[in-house]
Write a structure and sequence with these properties.
The protein is of the alpha/beta class. Helix content is about 35%, strand content about 25%. Helix 1 packs across helix 7, helix 4 crosses helix 6 and helix 8 packs across helix 12. It binds cytidine-5'-triphosphate (CTP).
C-alpha cells in the first residue's frame, strides 16, 4: 500500500504515543520508509529506542544533535509528514509557525503535505483556542485525521482519543494513493449484522454476528466518496460506519429494506448474517413454561440475496458472503452461481481469527469470471479496503 513512500512520523507528548509505535509498524509493514521525530515530552511516554528499533532509523529529537541542518534534509526527503499523536501544544506551535524543537522545525521546513492526528483530553479538545489553532492549520492545507470519542486516560469519556492506527494508515494510504473520491457519484447499499427472529415478546433466535465486517465495508465506501445506505440488524460494533444505519430486526424486515432500495444502486453487498429459519408462530404474549419438552416449528425465511440476484439491473455489482465449514470453495462458487452474484466473499470458521466476533478476518474473493483471490488474515478495516480495491476496479470495467 505504501511501497517506496517516505514518511516522517512526528510524535508528541501524549499517552497515545504508544499507538504511534503501532503506527510505525504498520507503515513499515506496508512498505514505507519511516523517520521518527519526537518532542522531549513524547519521551516521557515511549522511549526513543522503541521508535528507532521499529523504524530501523535513528530518531531525530535534538535540534542541535548531529548535523544542525537535519530538519531541512528531513523536510525535503519525505513524501508525507504525519504528526500522531499531536498534542494541543504542538498544534498551537505549528499553527503559529513556532519552531523551537526538532518536530516543529521539520514541520516548517517540510516541502511535503502534512497530516495531523490530534489527541488530548475531552475539555481541551473543545477549547476555543485549540479549535482556532486547528482551523488555522486546516487553512494552511494540513489534513486532519479527527480524534474519536471514547474513554480517555484521565478517566473521562468524550472526544479527544487518537484515531486508531489502522484509521490513520487508511487516511495516509488514501492520501498518497489518491483513492479518495474513487466511488464519488456511486450508490452503495450494504447489509450488516445479525437478524432476530421473535418467538414471543421476550425471546428470540439470533446468531453471533457483530456487524463489524459490514460496518467496515460501509466506512470504507464512505471514505471513497460513495453515497452509502447501511441496513443494519441489531448490533453496535466499535467501527464508525460514517453514515447513520437504518435498523431492522428480522430477516423479513431486512428483506423489505434491501429489496425496496436495491433498484438504483451501483453496488449491493449482503454481509448480514440473515436467519434461514424463523419460528412459524410468533406469540404476542410471553409463552409460559409447561411440563415436558417444547417443540418449536420453524419455517424458511426468504433469501434476500437470491431475490436481489433475480431483480438485478444491468451494470449493478451484487456481492454476497459465504461462511462455510466444508468444501468451502465449491460451496461458495455454487452460491455465487445460484444467486446470480458478481462476487462472493468466502470466510471459513476453520481459520483462526476469522469469522464472527473477531476484529480480524481471512477471506477469499471469488468472482463470476472464475477468479479467486485469497487474502491473508487482516484487520477487518483492511479487509474492507482490499474488497473495495477489487470492486472499484470491476466497476470501472462494467
Ligand atoms: N442471505 C440472504 N437471505 C437469507 C439468508 C442468507 O440474503 N435469508 C445471504 C447472506 O447475507 C450471505 C449469503 O446469503 O450474503 C450466504 O448466506 P448463507 O446462509 O451462507 O447461504 P445459504 O444460501 O443460506 O446456504 P446454506 O445455508 O446452505 O449455507
Amino acid at each position: 500500500m505504501l511501497s517506496g513512500k517516505k514518511i516522517i512520523l512526528g510524535v508528541t507528548g501524549s499517552i497515545a504515543a504508544y499507538k504511534a509505535a503501532l503506527l510505525v509498524r504498520l507503515f513499515v509493514k506496508h512498505g514505507a520508509e519511516v523517520r521518527v521525530v519526537m518532542t522531549d515530552a513524547a519521551t516521557h511516554f515511549v522511549g526513543e529506542l522503541t521508535f528507532s528499533n521499529l523504524s530501523q532509523q535513528p530518531v531525530f529529537r535534538g535540534l542541535w544533535d548531529g548535523e544542525w541542518t537535519e530538519h531541512v534534509h528531513l523536510g525535503a526527503w519525505a513524501d508525507l509528514m504525519v504528526v500522531a499523536p499531536a498534542s494541543a501544544n504542538t498544534i498551537a506551535k505549528m499553527s503559529q509557525g513556532i519552531c523551537d524543537n526538532a518536530l516543529t522545525a521539520v514541520y516548517l521546513a517540510a516541502k511535503c503535505p502534512v497530516m495531523v492526528a490530534p489527541a488530548m483530553d475531552a475539555d481541551m479538545s473543545i477549547h476555543p483556542a485549540y479549535l482556532r489553532n486547528l482551523r488555522l492549520l486546516q487553512e494552511d492545507g494540513v489534513k486532519i485525521v479527527d480524534s474519536g470519542i471514547g474513554f480517555l486516560a484521565s478517566g473521562l469519556h468524550g472526544k479527544g482519543r487518537l484515531a486508531e492506527p489502522e484509521e490513520i494508515l487508511a487516511a495516509v494510504a488514501d492520501f498518497l494513493g489518491g483513492t479518495e473520491g474513487q466511488l464519488s457519484g456511486r450508490k452503495v447499499l450494504i447489509s450488516a449484522g445479525p437478524t432476530r427472529e421473535r418467538i414471543d415478546p421476550v425471546r428470540f433466535l439470533t446468531n453471533p454476528s457483530t456487524g463489524t465486517m459490514g460496518y467496515a465495508i460501509a466506512a470504507e465506501a464512505v471514505r471513497l466518496g460513495a453515497e452509502v445506505t447501511l441496513i443494519s440488524g441489531p448490533c453496535n460494533p466499535s467501527v464508525d460506519p460514517g453514515v447513520a444505519p437504518v435498523y431492522v430486526e428480522s430477516a423479513a424486515e431486512m428483506f423489505e429494506a434491501m429489496v425496496e432500495r436495491a433498484g438504483d444502486q451501483d453496488v449491493v453487498i449482503m454481509s448480514a448474517a440473515v436467519a434461514d429459519y424463523t419460528p412459524k408462530r410468533s406469540y404476542d404474549h410471553k409463552v409460559k413454561k409447561q411440563p415436558g419438552d417444547l417443540q418449536l416449528t420453524m419455517t424458511r425465511t426468504r433469501d434476500i440475496l437470491h431475490q436481489l440476484g433475480q431483480q438485478k439491473p444491468t451494470g449493478q455489482l451484487l456481492v454476497g458472503f459465504a461462511l462455510e465449514t466444508q468444501d468451502a470453495l465449491a460451496n461458495a462458487r455454487g452460491k455465487l452461481e445460484r444467486k446470480n452474484l458478481d462476487f462472493i466473499v468466502l470466510n471459513t470458521l476453520a481459520d483462526a481469527g476469522a469469522g464472527f466476533g473477531t476484529k480480524t478476518n481471512k477471506v477469499t474473493l471469488l468472482s463470476r469470471d472464475g477468479n479467486e483471490v485469497a487474502f491473508p488474515l487482516k484487520d477487518k478495516t483492511e479487509v474492507a479496503r482490499d474488497l473495495w480495491e477489487h470492486l472499484t476496479q470491476s466497476l470501472k470495467t462494467t
